[in-house]
Amino acid sequence: MHADPVDQARRLAHDRFPGALCVILAGSTAAGRATPGSDLDIAVLLGDGGETGRETVRFEGRVAELFFHTRAGLSELFAADVAARRAVMQSMYATGFVLVDRDGEAGRARALAEADLLKGPPSLDQQTVETRRYGLTDALDDLADADDRTERLAVAGFALAAAADLLFDHHRAWTGGGKWLPRRLLEADARRGAALLDGHLSLCESGNASLLTGAAAEVLDLVGGPLREGYRRAWHGVIESVAAPA
Predict the structure, then answer these.
(1) Phi and psi of 87, rounded to 5°?
(2) Residue 215: pLDDT over 90
(3) Contacts of 6 (CB under 8 A, 6+ apart)
């Protein structure tokens, strides 16, 4: 019989952070979707003399991801997540299960997180949008010409990520990576997001790029259309990638 993950998280928080101002259990466990192999995602707010960081541990046989921070550190993490357009910490505080709450600290942190989520991420600047458009246009051209199956799969992954990033920006929606990419994509635009995901799956299974190409082309039309000739960038000491951010 497997131990209850919420009880495990509570014991871990008590053992590692007995003086915590608040502790939040997030992720699949807080959402009621935990499996025996699910990690524990735990955010811990510490007093001003504490440290800000993260650590992966194993507790009672279960892996736990610990995100610990002071009030000032949490403000910095929130700002960094907004700049990255991902809002990871905000989502943990806004939707997580409160394990520890001293003097209303959890409620105050949750209110700040919810305010960020409601406001949404910053828009990409116009030059970045043009670079994303150019990169996606080039990827779709490569898909049309690719004969090598391995290359086609690699380009398809890039095209999905680039189209998703443009669609996120079009809707001022929060981005995501890994398993959170499809989740956030469907939240941002159920129809177009599903078309991109279905197109990517179809290409991976059959090698047929037509569904993915059509879905990505529709996203391009939302943000100004394909971009090839006319794309120009001045050198500013760094190489700006056409790829979508990881």
Answers:
(1) 55, 45
(2) yes
(3) 25, 29, 97, 99
